Amino acid sequence: MASTNDGWRCRELSVDTEERNVVDLTDEVVAFCRAAGSGLLSVFVPHATAGVALVETGSGSEVDLVEALVRLLPRDDRYRHRHGGIGHGADHVLPALVSPSLVIPVDDGALMLGTWQRIVLVDLNADNPHRRVRLSLLRAGG
User: What would the pLDDT profile of 31-61 be if each residue is shown by its tens digit?
Assistant: First the structure.
């Protein structure tokens, strides 16, 4: 779904995380921004158990990130949040560590990312592998 309204340009991505805990969204985000001009891009995950991050991919960083999060958020019964499977409470703590949103400057359709930065969805919740990511670009002068 894509829309444009009063200086805003929006799109929603559907992402399946059943096979991967870290999904690179960069190429889809670049395509969304390419014809959009300049402004500020918001990348937002409207879920209580997932987040988005900027990381280097393809060098083992995805596995390192997941392993670090699993160490920080053990999958056991220590959590007061009890619905779902054992350890599901950890899924609800994840967005405090991996934010559900990012804001990235866009200049003439190009994301102003660092050399190795990629935009990724992070989701350790096996109970819900179907995720949405909302892209909203507030265009400069819009």
Answer: 999 988 899 999 999 999 999 999 999 999 9
Contacts of 24-30 spanning 24+ positions with Cβ under 8 A? 24/57, 24/118, 24/119, 24/120, 25/52, 25/119, 25/120, 25/121, 25/133, 26/111, 26/113, 26/118, 26/119, 26/120, 29/111, 29/119, 29/135, 30/111
43, 102 Cβ separation under 8 angstroms: yes
CA 44 to CA 131: how far, in whole Å?
A: 11
HEC assignment per residue over 34-85: HCCCCEEEEEECCCCCCEEEEECCCCCHHHHHHHHHHHHCCCCCCCCCCCCC
- Residue carrying structure tokens 């930065």: 117
| Bridge partners for 45 per DSSP | none
The CA-to-CA distance between both ends of the chain, in Å, stands at 21
Q: With 0.85 as the threshold, say if the pTM is over it.
A: yes
In the chain, what are the domains? Answer: 2-139 (2.60.120.460)
Our CA angle for 69, 105, 94, nearest 5°, is 15
